[in-house]
Write a structure and sequence with these properties.
Layout lengths: L1 H19 L6 H6 L6 H12 L3 H13 L5 H23 L5 H9 L1 H34 L3 H16 L4 H32 L19 H16 L2 H8 L4 H15 L3 H14 L8 H9 L2 H39 L4 H25 L5 H13 L3 H9 L6 H21 L5 H30 L1
Helix pairs in contact: 1-8, 1-9, 1-15, 3-9, 3-11, 3-12, 3-15, 4-13, 5-10, 5-12, 6-7, 7-8, 7-15, 7-16, 7-17, 7-19, 8-15, 8-16, 9-13, 9-15, 10-17, 11-15, 13-14, 14-15, 15-16, 19-20
Length: about 450
């Protein structure tokens, strides 16, 4: 019965997305929904992407060892959306562009666009891997299928979710998915907490502060939040949702609403993860959340929650792949292949989205035993290290730094963060990268100022 309710839940959401796809007939309609999205559609597309495998299954997986402080990923996601809604949404939407690379090309030239397309595409791809890992594991556990068969099922679900309608399908699917998750997860998370209070022996070996969100320490919290903040602000998927909004105000309110949805979602997932891993330590940590829903929830609540989680994973992969596909198609392949017809552009967009999904699944298959949130945090660092400061300057202080210095800061900061990660320095790679970017940008500003002074003196 759990499985039947889960399938029905998935069917309702997919049907809604496919119905919304009927109006998509152009590349812009596919990637931006015709730039007419209202507040619910913006909130749905963003929450539907960011509340995926990492926020649900990944949080439950990590909570068994870290306790309640595992929710800092979803807190970081929510805080990032708030910052984007309050600070970045309006100026970005006023531009009328389609990709983050196009925005940086206008400020710093083609070199900045090429680097942005490469680094952010790679970062977003790793985030899709973070949702692919629990997706395949979950489908394999629920159906008894092999890993390859489960990957094929997940691939088909992703195609049904977003292949035909792009942004419109993702928005409608995101709204419906979040309704199912909110109807079920908080009730079941409360029952998990009650179960822990009734069986204190389950937590006898846990350290002090296990139920404190500050348990992992200020340094780790700061590292996690900054990684997510910097990465999300530089993510094509969320920038794309801003560009799809009907007005700048709509974009801002949609982001703030998505933040309100995303922040608390980790708490019930963490509670169920803690309970399941304490009561059944023999269970693989990645299956803690779905196993709780099957063993301790009614068929209706558990089945709806399972359907919402599967759709969360599917929606996250679809939304992230849409971001990768849009950048690769629009910024790289379209100019090279000289495609000008709307039909050709739409076919190319759909093809690159499919390619991104397949690549994410291949990477997940090779790294099937890895931690889900490891890929999320790595993804955020790759997306944001080199781009965050130049992008922020381009939005609020355009032409403050020359294109040469901006591109140099992008390349050097990403290289510095990778080296820091390889040699395992005491400082987090994200801070090494941001520090390098800031240093190069400051040198560029000083050089520009001196150049202006010399020109004045000559005159």
């Amino acid at each position: 019965m759990h499985f039947v309710v889960m399938v029905m839940t998935i069917f309702v959401v997919l049907a809604g997305g496919i119905y919304a796809a009927r109006s998509v007939h152009s590349a812009e309609g596919f990637s931006l929904g015709g730039r007419s999205a209202g507040i619910p559609m913006i909130a749905g597309s963003i929450a539907g992407t960011c509340v995926g495998g990492g926020a649900t299954v990944g949080t439950a997986q990590l909570a068994g060892s870290l306790g309640l402080s595992a929710i800092w990923f979803t807190i970081g996601v929510g805080l990032s959306l708030l910052v984007m809604g309050v600070i970045y949404a309006r100026p970005l939407r006023y531009t009328g562009l389609e990709t983050i690379s196009q925005y940086l090309v206008e400020s710093y030239g083609k070199g900045a666009g090429r680097f942005t397309s490469f680094s952010t595409s790679l970062g977003i791809l790793f985030s899709a891997v973070a949702s692919t890992l629990p997706g395949i594991a979950l489908l394999a556990a629920l159906t008894g299928a092999t890993y390859l068969e489960s990957a094929a099922m997940l691939f088909l679900l992703v195609l049904l979710y977003a292949f035909w309608g792009g942004m419109k399908s993702a928005s409608v699917g995101g709204i419906l998915k979040m309704l199912f998750l909110f109807l079920t997860l908080f009730v079941l998370g409360y029952t998990a907490w009650q179960g822990l209070m009734e069986r204190p022996a389950l937590l006898a070996d846990k350290p002090m502060g296990f139920f404190s969100i500050w348990g992992i320490g200020l340094h780790a919290i700061l590292n996690n939040v900054v990684s997510v903040l910097v990465g999300m602000i530089c993510t094509q998927t969320y920038i794309q949702a801003i560009f799809s909004a009907a007005t700048p105000r709509t974009a801002a309110i949609g982001l703030i609403l998505a933040a309100i949805v995303a922040i608390p979602i980790g708490v019930p997932c963490a509670m169920m993860g803690i309970y399941m891993q304490a009561a059944h330590p023999e269970l693989p940590a990645i299956l803690a959340l779905p196993a709780y829903l099957l063993q301790y929830a009614s068929p209706l609540m558990g089945g709806m929650a399972l359907g919402g989680i599967v759709l969360g994973i599917v929606g996250s992969i679809a939304g992230l792949s849409l971001g990768v596909g849009t950048m690769v198609a629009r910024d790289i392949l379209e100019p090279v292949m000289k495609i000008t017809s709307e039909k050709g552009k739409l076919a190319l967009l759909r093809g690159t989205v499919v390619g991104a999904v397949l690549l994410a699944m291949m990477i997940a298959a090779v790294n099937r035993e890895s931690q889900i949130l490891f890929w999320n945090y790595l993804s955020m660092a790759l997306r944001g290290c080199g781009i965050f400061i130049p992008l922020t300057l381009a939005v609020f202080k355009p032409r403050m730094v020359s294109s040469q210095w901006a591109v140099a800061s992008m390349v050097l900061s990403l290289g510095a963060s990778i080296v820091a990660g390889m040699i395992r320095v005491d400082v987090s790679p994200i801070f090494v990268g941001l520090g390098t970017s800031l240093l190069v940008i400051l040198l560029g500003i000083v050089a520009r100022h001196r150049g202006h002074q010399q020109i004045v003196e000559r005159q």
